[in-house]
Amino acid sequence: MTQPRLLRSARIAAAGLAVGAMLLTGCAATVNKSAGTDAGANANAFLTIPREDMSTFDRNFNPFAPTVNPMVQQAIYEPLLVFNPAKGNTVPWLGAFWDAAKDGKSVTFTLRDGVKWSDGQPFVADDVAYTFQLQKKLKGGFEYLDSVTPAGTDKVTFTFNKPWSPALYEIGQLPILPKHIWSSIADPAKDTNANPVGTGPYTQVDSFQSQSFELKKNPNYWQPDKQKIAGIKMLAMSGNDAANLASVNGDVDWSTQFIPNIEKTFISKDKDHRHFWFPPTGAMINWQLNTSKAPFNDATVRKALSMAVDRDQVTKIGMSGYATPADCTGLSGNYASWKNADVANNCTWTKLNVDEANKMLDGAGYPKGADGKRTLKDGKPFEFKISVGASSSDWLSVANVISQNLQAIGVTAKVDSPDWASVVSGYEQGTFDTGIVWSANDPSPFKYFSSTMGTSTVKPVGAKATENYHRFGDPKADDLLQQFASAGDEAAQKQIANQLQAEYNAVAPTVPLFSGPEWGDYTDVHFTGWPTQDNPYATLSDRSPTTVLVLTTLEPRK
User: Fold this and answer.
1) Strand 434-437 with 383-387, pairing
2) Strands 202-206, 46-51: parallel, antiparallel or unpaired by DSSP?
3) How far is Cα 487 from Cα 483, in angstroms, rounded to an integer?
4) pLDDT tens, position by position, 477-488
């Protein structure tokens, strides 16, 4: 994942508190300014969404671009299937159904009948095969994929070079592109794709500006009865605070950034129409230590640093109590049914224990000086940076809590907060010290453990990494991952996942902090049919694969 999944939190710093006060006091006069909108206006209203992690938009709808615009993979292009972690179910999409071979070495999709691209051309199996050809050429990955073979117009078979059970969801969730468009593009990696052709419900780019753009209805959508909203309007925002102000003011319908004290700052302004739902199915949020650098290559150091972190403070102060502290399985709430109870219930290094952390560092050869500060084995100060993007107020608060916690063990950590592009570049190139990082969050925990412990995901410093930024590999984990991929049923996979969690507990490849909530708040002034805890047909994240389920369920308030 090259763009951060930006989770947000309350601030410790005075500047953040001042902004919170502004939200509480300065915005009430403009709230509900649209609450009286009549039904006719609602029918023509655009679903308005802020993007707090993009201060400006470029007209780039290329899904291969490093800074592709929002909704490209949610409203314009569609996958073969949609997995919904909030409900734990899989929804057939462009693939009507599929058949996985018993030997785990292939899967055949039968495509949905009657699907057209937005330019009116039919969606066919050749489009699927071409998409994977292009994906492997431009982005790599799918090393297990031997061939993609279309059969007629409606069937496509994926053949693997080894048994690979995780393939179904990885293949199924890749957005499909039209071959008749992309095969004629001279440089697919760099083309801006300014006027995209997709199968999604909202494909027509309109009113494009650097601060906003609109997507109107696909005139040839295969589910026209589900295009009940007029379109989508995206707003570029320079960080959480600007997006929160828009939400509090009633200027947007749906937002997925962190809002501090949401009951008071947002809900209380209009209790009849404002709602939020934060299911604990988001990614595990890790403090990743760059193991290509000493002393982070020492598991004892990683565990000691972890034991100095007060996760109750991290989640209560940094995350306003919305998140759940991590345990030493490394798994988020998305994998509740996969957790190894023996590991989860007997954690040590993910629990606060300053005395033990100090003993471990003393024993590992990182002594405290007369000033109470530790030094490395070469005599240099034990200090480093924690990198977080400047726009993520919650993660900055988390980093500040960690920095303060580490003082108790004589370690100095300085919070470094340039823009996210700079932070991610440091992660990708392996030049960072430590950072707050999102994790893989697939239907099974295979990808999480592969990207935290698999040697195949380790890139040398200077080579671009898109996962495993901390550059840690464990041959024992490799063997277990291979067994997992070869297992033919979930029961067998869970037994192997138990062993992966035990190995994670032993080597501490990352420092798990908390299970990330899937942020989502909305107003139903203009639109109804939102997913909720009682009706979890999708998550409320606007950048999740389940977003297309929301876009095809919402309808104007009558």
Assistant:
1) parallel
2) unpaired
3) 6
4) 999 999 999 987
How far apart are alpha carbons 306 and 348 in whole angstroms? 10
- Residue 556 is encoded by which pair of tokens? 């104007």
Range 237-250 burial, b when 16+ CB lie within 10 A, else e: bbbbbbbbbbbbbb
CB 142 within 8 A of CB 151: no
pLDDT in tens, 133-160: 999 999 888 999 999 999 999 999 999 9
81 forms bridges with which residues in the sheet? 92
Task: Write the pLDDT tens digit of every residue in 317-363.
Answer: 989 899 999 999 999 988 989 999 999 999 999 999 999 999 999 99
Minimal CA–CA distance to 78: which of 1, 194, 213, 175? 175
Angle value at C-alpha 546, between 201 and 256, nearest 5 degrees: 100
Backbone angles phi, psi at 41, to 5 degrees: -65, -40
Among the listed residues 308, 413, 294, the one whose alpha carbon sits nearest the alpha carbon of residue 365: 294
- Residues contacting 558, CB < 8 A, separation 6+: 39, 42
Whole-angstrom distance, CA of residue 541 vs CA of residue 242: 18
The Cα 454–Cα 523 span in angstroms is 42
Q: Is 141 left (phi over 0), alpha (psi -120 to 50) or beta?
A: left
Yes or no: say if 485 and 165 are a contact pair by the CB < 8 Å rule: yes
- Residue 89, phi then psi, degrees to nearest 5: -120, 165
Q: Which two tokens stand for residue 65?
A: 């671009």
First to last CA, the chain: 39
Instruction: Return the HEC string of 383-447.
Output: EEEEECCCCCHHHHHHHHHHHHHHHHHCCEEEEECCCHHHHHHHHHHCCCCEEEECCCCCCCCHH
Among 262, 210, 201, 198, smallest CA distance to 236 is for 210
Angle, alpha carbons 499-482-489 (nearest 5°): 75
Query: pTM of the full predicted structure?
Result: 0.82
| Interatomic CA distance for residues 405 and 471, integer angstroms | 25
- The secondary structure of 177-204, three-state, reads CCHHHHCCCCCCCCCCCCCCCCCCCEEE
Report the distance separating Cα 299 and Cα 368, nearest Å. Answer: 19
Length of the chain: 558
